[in-house]
# Entry
Amino acid sequence: MAEMQNSNPTILNVADLPTRSPSTIKAADYGNGIFAAVPNPADFLSSDSEDDDLLEEPIDEQEIYDLIKCISDPEHPLSLGELAVVSLPDIFIKPTLPNVPDSPLQTVTVLITPTITHCSLATVIGLGVRVRLEQSLPPRFRVDVRIKEGTHSTGDEVNKQLGDKERVAAALENGALMQVIAKMMETCQ
Amino acid sequence: MSALQKFMLVVEHDKEEAKRIAESVAQDVESKKTTLIEIVQMLGEYINDEDPILRGKAVSFLTSVIKSLSPRFLSRQQIQVLTTFFGDRIEDGGAVAGLQTLQALDRFTKEMVTETAQALFSNFQDLQSRSQSQRFQVYQLLNNLMSNHRKALLEMGDTSLVGIVDLMTGEKDPRNLMMVFSILKVVMVEWEITNHVELLFDSVYNYFPITFRPPPNDPYGITAQDLKGRLQDCISSNRLFAPQAIPALLDKLDSTSPNVKKDALNTLIACVHSYDPDTVSRYSITIWEVLKFEILNVQEEFLSELSLTALQGIAQRLSEGVTEISQDLPLAQYLKPITKECNEQLQEPQQKQAKPAQQILASLSSSSVLAFALLVQTVVAPIFTIYQEADGIVKQRALLDTLSVLFESAIQIFGKWTTRGAEVAFENPLLEFKDQFSDVLGQALMGAAKEEVSFRVTALKGFLRLSTLRGFFQDNEIGLFVQYLDEILLQEESVGRDDLKKEAIAALAEISKHKPRLIMDITFPAFVATLPDEDDGTNTAYLSTLDTLAQISVERDIFETLFRRLFSKLSILLQKEQPGSVGYPRAILVTLLYVMQQRDMKVDPNVDLYFDKIVVGLCRSVSEAASGKAKNRVLNDATILDTLGRLCNLLVRSVSIQKQEQAAENVYSLFALPGDFSPVPFFHGATADQERTAIVSTYLLAGLSKDCANRIPHTCPDVSRLIQDLVMRSVSEDTEPATHLAFLRQLALLVNKFLSKQDLHIAETAFDGLVAGKGILSPSAIRTVFWLSKALVLRLAPTTTHILTSLLGLLSSPDQQTSAATARGFSILLSEDDVLSATNGATIRLLSKQRVFTTVVPMISSRIREVNIAGNADETQTKPDHIKPAHLTALAGILSTISTALVMPELPTLLPLLLQSLDLQTLDSVAVRAATLDTLAVIIRDNGVAVIDKCGHVHSLVERLLKTTQAKTNSSAVNTPRLRADALKCLYLLATKQTSADAGSNAPPPPSISPLLPEKNQVLRSLRAVLDDPKRDVRKAAVDARGAWIRGVDDAPEEED
# Structure
């Protein structure tokens, strides 16, 4: 690879990245710690209750974040989450047609913060995020990936590129570019 | 025709015959029938012939004859003559081999060595144009001269040096090179080379880097690594090479090939370790200047690691023999630019470049105590300054990380408190900063905002390292840390994933190994004080307290304290009229059980005490409670009895045979005083409370050694009455579930572990009594049958096949209930059990699982085929439709308890059955389908798609998996979230395991189109909808599976490097 543009970015600790807090913490539960090792004979013959099954878990911002935080930066062996290129407060899910309350259509907006303002790879990163989301979200979601305002010297230019369906489609036909993007997504598991 | 002529005729095509001729001539020489002179004269007419082949054959004849002579036959004079003769004709075939033979003789003198060497040097200028095998022969001769007559060659001085180098220059064959390198290395090490440094260096360095790749199926088995190793030995063999070698190797780091760089670094490391410290010192800073870039701008992880190893090696060499620290040391000179660089990078420690700086510090500071001291002197103070001025916690955390690196090195150099062996003579330079460390770390750990978990965890880990570092903190300073940890665990609310608490527990456990006293004096009182007298249902915080206590009490002294404290809590509870929830006493028992499981109780000196308190004391209390004489009903509770039973079981296994016999006699009476308690066996009209004591009895029985069998009550003259009694109790429908399980296990234990071979018929009679001639059985009876079968099958009783056939027969019972209960029972047969286990000395034969599998599967398969055919042929369905699901359920039960290694050979039979299992739709088939998906996942994971493709079922499998991933189905089918996620996992595995695991090693599979390709479109379309599943876990699995199919399933297999 050519000379790196930003060879010394700040890195967030993986443990500090936002995660979904375990929803039902029972702080003191016989199922925890050393007490899980001994089966409770009261469980005997009881069948697993699947009451939770009916509970719906809608797609939320954290889920979108989890989908894209693991994408690798094309320049560093680090993830977009660690480099704070994507962050939870910069992800929004809104109904696409607010005037039609029954419409299932949703729009996901992801704002990207490049590590430096003149990063020429911003477009590639944006494309990567876009591809990842389009592969991973159901068809009723519209994906909108943009550079966060004021974080890039040619942000408008990049946004135009990322927003233009034709240009995105053309870019995805480009073999070399797709190889870079496939490499970025290898770390998504 | 003379022997010579005969020899020359056959030598090319019949080696054996030629050898025989030579041997017979040799015999003639030894028995004086002919002389060597005559033989040499015989050669006369050929050795001056024009044709070199003819000459060669003639000389070979002489060589063969000499080879066949006994080693002491030739006189020195004869050897001299022959040496000269061969030397003169050294270019002719056979002469080198002749000299080879001669030089091995005792009478081969120094002069002859010189003569031979001279002959080699002056006649083989054209050696490199000869064949590989001829060159090999020459090198072999030289190599032998080197090992047998090195002194003579050494005395030739420059002549031999130059001669050897010239002779071998230009060699290209890997087999020959192996020898060339080893000969040259001897010259480099032992010859005086001052005048020929360059010549020698070039002679080997020209081969760097080695790019040799052995041809496939190379019969000689020489690898590039072998050659690299020998070349490296040569380059690093003599410090005089340094002026050439080190700059040249550093130049190679400009290469674009990571492999070349790797070779250069490895060689450099070898040089650092073998050149003398003065030489290393001269180049140390130059090396640092170059390697710095490899570490700071990581190109490949391994290059950075090798560079760090090289830097560390230099520091180690420069520390050799140094006893006092001073700034004039070569070591200090070397470290100066390094610390400068690190200090600069650490100015912004949260940035990416700080990581390599930390790595440099880590490897250099752990290289020697001197390097450690010098680094600490220059690095620690600036870190404190940045820390004080830091504008954010992220930066401070990164600095604490850096300090931790130094603490880790300190541990490597000075050891932990538990490290044995002498202490290091130097004072630990970190001691100077001890109070500062304690302040900063304490402040970070306890003063930071509670949400700053990762910052506090970093501080905690640093503090822990210093606390375990030998001879560093005083006990009261570690005590302070222990108090912090107690506070975190006892007073702080949980935050997020509780990482800090987990680390705190781990830290206390670690300290308990080094300073058990501190844990007993500080942590124990604090924790025990928070334990309530009883659980009044308002607060269950005691659970996490007990959890922590359990994890820090593995050390012997601490455990003794724990036991005393908890046992007295428990005793008080048992005396209370109102003891509160039984969860609390159970938690206490579980805590004791957990710690005892972690320790080796067999060697604990207090084990008899624990036995008396728990097994004797508490069992007696159980008997009292069962007779209604206790203050409360704690010991009437089944969960308490189960936990107590496990504890007793462990203790019985750990005590002496005498104590075990005592336990055996009291298995049923539970140490009750005579008349106080009626044991369960043969006690008709026992209350539920009394019957429940069977839980403890069963665990006691399980712990006993087989040697105590005769001490168990009711077993003389035979156990048939006891077994009958147990069977009778087991088939009863109104026993409590926990008590029922205890009876079943007890029955199985007696039959499997204690019944002698002669008495097996007792169990078989019981089995037949339950099963024979009956089409309808109660659920309890079916469970009894299966536990009895389990006991017999695991020891591979002679009637195993009969038992399995009978069980399968029950599946076809016209009674749907019987059939369904039987089907579920099959999972009991081979499943692991806590009581009937190898630990408890049960008889579990290795082949039992295989036997069950190979007996049952073909029978199930053919039965299902029958049912299928009958169903198709006859619209009226003569067979009830519960039979097929019952068989599939039974199969799933068996599969879930055996390893896939056993399954693989039967896969072609099995796969259609598994696919039919996936076709089941109803709610009660969920468990069967889940088990089937588990089995499929393991099969795919371990063996890849190929095995499924071989059976021709890829399409059917994918189709059914996709059907199972649908949350909403048109039919009545029920796909629970777990089933959907499992099916997706199978799809994911299919796409990631397209080549089987073992194929990767040598022969790459022939390029072929993936069998998954025809399915790809369908899968991607179908999974797109699953991405909208209402459940998050299912969506996650769908994303992974879809991604794997998008990326992994392609028409052209991926090109491997």
